[in-house]
Amino acid sequence: MLFDFSLKSSLLLIFFFHGLVFTLLLWIKGLRENNRACQWLGTFTGLCTLYITPFMLGYAGWYAGGIYRELLFYIPFQQLLLLPPVLFFYIRSLLDQSFVFRRQHLVHFIPAFVYGLYSLIVFITDQWIMGYAYFYADGKDKDFSPWYQMAGFISLIAYLIASLRVYKRYKLLSYDALSFADTVLFKWAKHFLLALMVLAGLRLLFFIINPEWAAFGKKFWYYLSFSALYYYISISGYINTIRSVTSFSIFSLPDPLPVQVITEEPATEYIAIGNDKEAIEDITEWKEKIMQLMQRERLYENPALTIADLADRLHTHSKKISQVINQGFEMNFNDFINTYRVEEVIRKIEAGEANSQTLMGIAYDAGFNSKSTFNRAFKRVKAITPKEFLEKTTKTGFKS
């Protein structure tokens, strides 16, 4: 039987071929640049392409009968227990440059392996041992069994929650360790997770509207929506293949499955424990040391300043500095440094430097590296925008 190019099969076919292309492109880029996140995303895209395959072929008439039907029923296209951990490890690799996939992580793939083994047993029993459709006597594809579809949905929700926790941890760490946190909080990671939440919502909606998951004709709009979302993920993910500059340990962040991976790399100098309540007896002394260093050496003018740089200058470790700033100044490292930068901008404005250079020029000299970060930090400190402050302080016009 030839491929029936109906409207439904043709639309899904377009997404199918684009999925294959981006799977290949992401893997090639990942191998060339040694970018593990890119490889994980390529795997995710490939699995999504397989996910829509049975419906694309179903609308093309391949499940109507004959040799196609006999073969396709035994191929586990919908890897519902493999997709969730793959997306989780993509987020881990994207946001943590020190993350290394280890043998202990294989436990996350045991359910997918068991289902693959089950599919193989079904095939061998029906085709070689029994010689007839023993398991498939009901004529329904096992991929669309209610228990499997529900198990896949629960797994997706669990790993999506775990991924959101990783992103939250990444944000906290970045603000506690980097003075340029705003520029490395990947908008793409946030958009990726939002797209997955929309996908989970669509899946739940279609579960409610039509619980008969194997009914081809009633699921087209779900699979079309799914295809559009994973197409967006593939394109955006390929464009946003930059890697995190932050390394962190998430021992305190349990995996979705009941297993603790305790053999990861120890935390690097970027690690900061902002919520550590351990008391620092000499906190007043350390506050004074930090303030004197900042005023004397004007470290805040370095747009790439990290908490490790500050710790090195004071001959201590990052955890100590993080605790002093969190508990002594009651702010994170990013806000602490930006406060100094804002005060420097104010000093320069009051000294009349706004007459000879733009406001952003002054901001860049003070250590800011983007207009949005400058505006946000300034308003947090002074409760008004830089432009409003300039107009109140000087009689010169605002130069953008």
From TrEMBL:
Record key words, sorted: DNA-binding, Membrane, Transcription, Transcription regulation, Transmembrane, Transmembrane helix
InterPro entries: Homeodomain-like_sf, HTH_AraC, HTH_AraC-typ_CS
MF terms in GO: DNA-binding transcription factor activity; sequence-specific DNA binding
PANTHER family noted in UniProt: ARAC-FAMILY TRANSCRIPTIONAL REGULATOR
Residue ranges the record marks as coiled coil: none
Source species: Sediminibacterium goheungense
Residues spanning the membrane: 6-28, 40-65, 71-91, 112-135, 147-167, 188-208, 220-239
Keyword rRNA-binding listed: no
Superkingdom per UniProt: Bacteria
Name of the protein: AraC family transcriptional regulator
Record flagged with keyword Lipoprotein: no
PROSITE patterns the record matches: HTH_ARAC_FAMILY_1 (PS00041), HTH_ARAC_FAMILY_2 (PS01124)
Domain HTH araC/xylS-type per the UniProt entry, residue ranges: 288-392
